[in-house]
Specification:
171 residues; alpha/beta; two-stranded parallel ribbon; 28% helix
Length: 171
């Protein structure tokens, strides 16, 4: 559920996940960012932010269930800033079912974006501030390649394998 808020103190917590320590940020009990270590667009904790683990109880409960294989769709209050185009892309991504993938081209066509403008869809996905919760990891190249993911392509592969969209590889 996407709501908008720009008041109150920014709060944060961290969550140990199979992908590393996740940073959850919010305002007024509403999630505004979920990022991973090394993510190119990840916010850094600022001195004026307050740690408040209790404010993120529902988010961490759902993340625990997701990584345990018991949750396939998040139901959290969140608010994100973005352009109208980014919001359209993010809303479309929210409809990609767990355990499936789509391509950048298919997503662009669904949005009525010209083929030549498909990279703009990728850029909007790269600006997604809610990794995992907003499943941009489910968008792949037309040839099945694991193209760009703000959290790293290796994590994209791990998420898609976890969801059953990819088969585990033996090493």
């Amino acid at each position: 559920m996407d709501t908008h808020t720009d008041t109150d103190t920014t709060t944060f917590t961290t969550f140990e996940s199979p992908l590393g320590e996740l940073l959850l940020v919010g305002r007024a009990g509403v999630l505004t960012s979920l990022s991973m270590p090394g993510q190119r667009t990840a916010p850094a904790v600022r001195p004026d932010w307050q740690r408040d683990d209790d404010a993120f109880t529902e988010a961490t409960t759902q993340l625990t269930a997701y990584f345990a294989g018991r949750l396939t769709r998040f139901d959290l209050r969140f608010a994100t800033d973005g352009t109208d185009f980014q919001r359209r892309v993010w809303q479309a991504v929210d409809t990609i079912p767990y355990g499936t993938t789509t391509t950048y081209g298919t997503l662009a066509a669904q949005l009525g974006v010209a083929r030549a403008d498909t990279p703009a869809v990728g850029a909007a996905l790269g600006a997604n501030p809610l990794l995992i919760v907003r499943p941009c990891h489910r968008v792949i190249g037309a040839d099945g390649s694991m193209r760009g993911y703000a959290g790293g392509v290796d994590r994209k592969v791990r998420l898609l394998t976890h969801e059953g969209a990819l088969q585990p590889t033996l090493v």
